Amino acid sequence: MMSYFFQLLISGIVVGSIYALSALGFVLIYKSSRVLNIAHGQIIAGGAFITYALTVWADIPIYISFFLSMIITFFLAMSVERIFLRRLIGEPVISVIMVTIGLMSILDGIIYLTPFGSENFSFPVFFPKTPISFGGVSVSWTQLVGVIITFLLIAAFSWFFKKSTIGISMRAVSDDQLAAMSVGISVPKVFGLAWAAAGLSAAAAGGIIGNITGLNFDTLHAFGITVFPVVILGGLDSIIGAVAAGIIMGLIQQFASGYLDGHFGLSGTAEVLPYIILLVILLFKPHGLFGIHEIERV
Amino acid sequence: MASNRWLTTGNYFTSYKQEQRIFLTHLDRTGFLIFLILLFVWPLVFPPSNKYMLVIDNILIAAVAVLGLNIATGFAGLISIGHAAFVGVGAYTAAFFAKTIGDSHVFLTHAWPLVILLSGFAGAFFGAVVGLPALRLKHLYLAIATLSFQMIFTWTINFMDFFDQGQTIPIARVFWFTGEVSRKEHYLFWYYAILVILILLGFMIRNLLRTRYGRCLVAVRDNDRAADAMGMHPGLTKVYAFALAGFMAGVAGALHAYLYRGVGIESFSLHESITYLAMAIVGGLGTLHGSFWGPAAIKMLDLFVENISEYAGSVLPATMNLTTALRPLSFGLVIVLFLMFEPRGIANWWRIFRSYTRLWPFRY
């Protein structure tokens, strides 16, 4: 019984850290440009497929292709911002949301044109097959490495935001665009960089998810929607919030499907619980756990 | 008022009442009447095949739903990514009756206008409940709250045995004065039924927008603090906009259930919600006739893409599934292009056309 609990705990942390990495992409974009990128799941999927194509078809070692795909999505996401969102700066929220929704559809269509649209793919095995077990609780090597890479990346991103010049200018833009502009920060460039950074993290998330669960477009782009509750729970503009909320949400989902499904005539609770939590959070703490208070009541 | 009541030659309004008329001139009114008569007569003159009649019925139902969405999103500025769930609430209200009293009970087959009305009220109730977060949330947060209603709705239906876990629940054919509506005239009958309901609702909304409540909606959209200062109640207005949107959606849902003679969850997915939003935007947010242009444009695009990919499939050797790729691609492109180049939607083209014909032969 105890080992079942710990098994759920471990898989909750694994799922949660992937959530955290995916949520990071939302946070990076929202933090600087106040845009919620609904097409993020598609960018994650794109990154995963590029990694797969480079590793399996072009036969490049996984580590190199992992970085290559991160670089490719870096520029892809930057050009997406350049083409679609640059001219929408200052437009009402609904336009921006709808453009990212339209973007989601376009990327869907493009991915369906590639062989990745409908089939399942799985990465070749890179790590030892025998999982690490400890008292009945087991973690596969892929999961372990995935979690480690996730935390390294998140640490790198938060360092980048805290210390580097570009990171500080991005924070300045998120605080006050006009003030940032007046001290000589190029706001459009920062927006582009934020998207690029989000694309980079999305590719990393895609690669890790692809290694852990296999590649399937439907599950990958569903990720974009699943991560919403995580981002809201953590607060839309907090990296720490994204990490904490990711892990909380992962744990809740795993425990819900481990303990609730099959009892009380429930099934698929892991899918709906995040949204119920999301509604409760929105009602009582609309800015999330770590977000900045900016909701006004009317 | 100018002496000429058929053509306008400028602004000669002497009272607010004159300015708020639904039809500015007699010409407008006559033109609209002729248009309505044409809408009723054309299926009798050129009877379309069932396939196309179904598409037209779908457009009209979508117009009912988008009319509601346009109230919430276009006029009151409340983004709703869960509109298909409200449509689903309406459809599942009909399904609820079908499940409890049998799908061919007199209540469902004979008293169908009542069922449609009740579904509308069910939608309005859920709309008001989901609108409650609007008291505290704005913009993005509200959009996500409605999104979570969509997710919770889908899960609830998928999970409940009572609603066959999202499998299709059948609903019997309805009766009319002439007896049961047969298979052959099913789509034609519903064309007329939906058309009448759509016209009634359209006039209702048009008149609502001329009242204090309609102006409240727009005021709250433009600046809710200013609206508050002017003595309106923004919170109440928002909840009531959601309830109205829910009512329209509920009516659309019941019509959908009757048209397809069954209710299944796949018609009320997140994708449908996004489609409704796209319709509202392509048609023109915050305009009444945009709610008719949008559904027509999107459904026509769908039909067009389907025909194109069918044709391409016959020419190209069967390599890939073009339909699954082209559908989202064209849909997304239409949304993005409209938002980038014509954010005011097709309604704006109509406005330009109208002002051109009104002023012709003068430029301005």
TrEMBL record, chain B:
InterPro entries: ABC_transp_permease, LivM-like
GO terms under cellular component: plasma membrane
Key words, A-Z: Cell membrane, Membrane, Transmembrane, Transmembrane helix
Entry GO MF terms: branched-chain amino acid transmembrane transporter activity
Entry protein name: ABC transporter, permease protein
Membrane topology recorded in Swiss-Prot or TrEMBL: Multi-pass membrane protein
Keyword Cell membrane: yes
Domain of life: Bacteria
CDD domains from the UniProt entry: TM_PBP1_LivM_like
Species per Swiss-Prot/TrEMBL record: Desulfonema limicola
Transmembrane segments: 27-46, 52-71, 78-98, 110-132, 139-157, 187-205, 239-259, 274-294, 315-341
Subcellular location: Cell membrane
Keyword set includes Disulfide bond: no
